[in-house]
Amino acid sequence: FLWLDLAVLRQNAVGSDIKHIGEIIVSVGKVVIVLEPWSAPVSLGRVWCLFEVMHTAHSASLDEVFADLQLALPPQELNDFLRAIDEDPGEVRRVLSSFDCRTAQATRVHDRDLIMRFIADCFGGVRSAASTPALQPARRLQRARAKLAQAWVSP
Description:
Layout: H1 5-8, H2 14-17, H3 21-28, E1 30-34, H4 47-60, E2 68-72, H5 75-87, H6 89-97, H7 109-123, H8 141-151
Parallel strand pairs: 1-2
C-alpha cells in the first residue's frame, strides 16, 4: 500500500486534513524518507516531511501499533552513506540529528504556519531532533545500515 500525501490531501484545504496525518501514518504502518543527498537531505529541510517523521516517531513511543521509519537512498548516495558510516559515523549522526522543524520550509507559508500551530497544540511545541529520543540516530545507525544494505541489493 502506498499513500502519497501530495496526491491524497486536499491541497486547497489542508487544515481539515492535517489532524488525521498521525492516524493515517499508523494505519499505513511505514514512512519512507528519501535522503538525497545523504549529507544534506532536502527532505529534512521540508516541514511536511518532518511533520510526518514526527508523527512516526511519536507513534513509536506509544504502546499501541506504531509506524516504522525507513531511510531510502539512491544507489550512489547509499554507497556514499555506507562508506561514511564506516569512516566517520560521527558525521552521519550529525547529519541525521541536525534538522530542526522550526527552520524547515514549505512551498506554501500557510501550510508551514498550520503545521507549526498543530505541533504546538498537539505535541507541546517543537524540539530539535537531537532532543527527541525516538529520532536519535545513534541507537539506530547500525540497524539502518543493515536495512539499507538489504534494500539496495546490487543487480
